[in-house]
Amino acid sequence: MSPRLRLPRFGKTARPDQDAAAADAAPVSAATGVGPTTTATVAPVAPVAPDAPAAADAPDASDSVALSGGMAKLAEYERAVLSWVADDGYPVNVDVEIEVRSADGTVRFAEPAGFRILPGTVVAITGSHIHALPEGGFDERRHVTVWGPALLRPRGRFAVSPSRVWAWDERDMPLPAAYERSLPKARRYFEALSEERGERVRPTLPRGMLLLRATRAPFLSATFAPVLLGLAVAARAGTFDVVTAVITLVAASAVHLGLNVANDVFDTILGADDANTTPTKFSGGSRVLQNALVSLREMSLLAVACYGVAAVLGVALLILRGSPALVGIGALGFFISLAYTMPPFKLVYRGLGEISTAIGFGPVMLLGTYVVQSRGSISAEAVLISVPVALLVAMILYVNEIPDRAGDSRVGKRTLPVRWSKGAVIRGFDVSAAGAFVSVVAGVAGGLLPIPALLILLAIPIAMRVHSGLDRFYDNPYALMDTMAANIRLHMVVGLLLFVAYLLTIADQTILGRKPFFW
Questions:
Q1: Domain limits, the chain
Q2: 157 CA to centre of own chain
Q3: Would you say the pTM of this structure is higher than 0.85?
Q4: Own/partner pairs for 283-289, CB < 8 Å, 24+ apart?
Q5: Rounded distance, CA 435 to CA 386, Å?
Q6: Residues 343-398: tens digit of each pLDDT
Q7: Domain 19-173 carries which CATH code?
Q8: Can you give the C-alpha Rg of the chain in angstroms?
């Protein structure tokens, strides 16, 4: 049996001081369609265990619609699901015919055959609609639930004057946004359950999957590109050490993961992630804190652990290949990583996130890698090749901030998409993407970069696709996801093409032993 919360329970005869609290505990049904041509239907659902905690099932006042609007929505249905807790303590869900009388603000129904409802019992009445698509999936989802005491009328009928209403319509609010808006309520549920049981209760994921999600490890491509390019530029110059190359890659990855986790911690503390009701798989943070999968303390410890690994490996690199240049670059990288969201710096909150990201995942990582291999020297080639990587990695953050701008604005996170208009944001992307391609062409023309570096021009169609997606889906966070994915792919493809270009030049000079146009 499920643990019982000591809260007023739905279904008992209501007193005036319990009516609202009892409505909070009302079970909400989810009706389903019966075929691809279904347009409107309601159906009873399996009852919930009678002693299951239900206080978090009903919406907060902020999620409720005006009673009049809710009654108007319910009037669209001829049948609904009637839910209550019977006198024996078991919840009941029954399909009934309803009559909504807007004039006197009541919903009327006949007592279901075979069931007995005590006068004054608090009931929930749910009308819902779902449409099954022929190719699979659903659309046109919506529901409305009203709560109130059932008052006995003549001829076995009951009338409910709702005191609470909850409605959701996919046309007004996409399902992911509705889910995000319910998270504070869900967290309060787990907090109440934890207090009742005397132990922490929360949702769980397999440990590996949770770690992957909390650190946002799939975004490590932003680290691999500059580090591998730095190694390639150094190898082309005749300096390459396998041991320090591996240590550099792991250390840079640890810094990146630490940044991701710390960003979630500070964005949660500062309210940015909680204010964001339209996160996507590319934006809005990992959401592990918002979904109560980990505690703030656990996330903080994870960030410290990542930075600790990076610090230990950084010291090892200083011992093995130390130089004043490496000390300076390493210190700058750590500062940018910590100051990105940490008060009092909060660089991303001041519209400096793109610049910080460009420097950290461009020159800092690429030159840091090169300096480790070269024992302190810096080349103009390494500086120049870091420019396209820096510009395009900054654009990952830039585009991913677009869906977050409403929530960011509410908490004073003044990112560039918050500050700028749609046209200005799109122009900003165009200028940065063009700058990435032009910098390489100029480097080849000036003899600083190898001719195969021009392979990155093959990625121009991807940049054009991102531009088109920004123009079409700027105000639709979920439709914009394909554009965000293409933008991440743009950075990855450019990094890969540049890496392949350097492999060609390295193979030319080491295997063929000559210097044709590649060199």
A1: 19-173, 207-510
A2: 48
A3: no
A4: 283/400, 283/401, 283/402, 283/403, 283/404, 283/477, 283/484, 284/403, 284/404, 284/407, 286/213, 286/214, 286/215, 286/216, 286/260, 288/210, 288/213, 288/214, 288/264, 289/264, 289/265
A5: 12
A6: 999 999 999 999 999 999 999 999 999 999 999 999 999 999 999 999 999 999 99
A7: 2.30.110.10
A8: 29
